[in-house]
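The records we work with from here on pair a chain with its fold. Here is one such record, which you should read through line by line:
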Amino acid sequence: MRLMLLGAPGAGKGTQAQFVREHFGIPQISTGDMLRAAIQAGSPLGMAAKQVMESGGLVSDEIIMGLVRDRIHAPDCESGYLFDGFPRTLPQAEGMRQAGIRLDWVVEIQVPDSDIIERLSGRRIHPASGRVYHIRHNPPRLTGVDDVTGEALVQRDDDREDIIRTRLSVYHDQTRPLVHYYEEWAAGGDPQAPRVARVDGTRPVDEVRRELEYLLVLDRT
């Protein structure tokens, strides 16, 4: 099971990724984890990435692609893998395709921007414990304070509406076009192309999970 989950920030991608990872026994591969591991191991790619990062630059797609190629040949990827945060852009997707890095499925969890903004901007956090509330869906007993300690709840900076709108804009401009890229590839009849599916992420978490399970398990029977 070689899979990529797409979805805007707050679409529930992380929750569903955990289900897929546990259900299929496959690792979740993130570029951040790969970079940290490569730097810690002192590999040539890791050292190249470290040099770029220390100079304040962005790690090139070429380095990231090399890390991905190394990672998917690790023993824990024998049964498949789940990409997290990669590819993010069309050049990265094309680089994967040219490198022969296979995907079986590309699944987008769809949630309207208005729902995303309502979900994220309403979150409140108790910093010391990590407890999460929502002013509408899971409010504390007393407005603005933690149920257990009575301490003040806070809104994270990246849950502010202006920040959310910026993150959504980046997703729509850079990452969501990947869905159309993979659809066009599949429509061309190439057997190497992944299948593409869209899942309604506005439904309860368990319903989204069941649809994913149906799609992915049916694919393996």
About this structure: The two ends are 12 Å apart (CA to CA). The chain has a mean pLDDT of 90. The CA atoms of residues 5 and 107 lie 5 Å apart.
